[in-house]
Amino acid sequence: MVAAGSGTRFGGPKQYTELGGRRLVDWALDAARRACDGVVLVAPPDRPDHDPAADHTVPGGATRSASVRCGLEAVPADAPVVVVHDAARPLAPPELFDAVIEAVEAGADGAVPGVLVADTLRRVEGGVLDRDGVVAVQTPQAFRADALRRAHEGDPDATDDATLVEAAGGRVVVVEGDRRNLKVTDPTDLELVRALLP
Fold first, then answer.
1. What pTM did the predictor assign?
2. Helix/strand/coil (H, E, C) string of the chain?
């Protein structure tokens, strides 16, 4: 569970904001715990204490990819599949975790949830993009553990782990995502999430 961000756009560490009587990270951890055998929480470096909601708590790094590597070090070496999820997505249902894990167990190197893009897409430089075949990618993302570890060799950086696994030659598949699986980026997103809480 990647929860080490400083929340610059939000105005603070959004993952610790309370919503519905629980922190955002607690909602995300609950879904992860129902689908996974163990949960490693990658926390901000200034919050190094163990979080009782996770099996292990480790301090994160300077970037998202560095934080994932910190978490990987705490994952048992014999774990066959690793799931990476952002604490800023508190509404991911356990079924979404199950779907990406099952896709990896079926033979993919990685699996990501994706939802079709409804809006027209335009490049900043001009020109409309064809949105056919374009999806908005979410987390949780699941990977064969060896493929994810190999993709992180040399400390590369990317906005998500699927990009790194593909760059390392891995095959990543897309499963159907969930439109309710919103990412909290700024305070206005909290109202949408609050309306969708179970």
1. 0.92
2. CECCCCCCCCCCCHHHCEECCEEHHHHHHHHHHHHCCCCEEEECCCCCCCCCCCCEEEECCCCHHHHHHHHHHCCCCCCCEEEECECCCCCCCHHHHHHHHHHHHCCCCEEEEEEECCCCEECCCCCEECCCCCEEECCCEEEEHHHHHHHCCCCCCCCCHHHHHHHCCCCEEEEECCCCCCCCCCHHHHHHHHHHCC
Q: Under CATH, what is the fold of the domain 14-182?
A: Spore Coat Polysaccharide Biosynthesis Protein SpsA; Chain A (3.90.550)
CB 190 within 8 A of CB 19: yes
pLDDT (tens digit per residue) in 40-63: 999 998 876 778 889 999 999 999
Q: What is the residue extent of each domain of the chain? A: 14-182
Angle at 126 between CA 121 and CA 132, to 5 degrees: 30
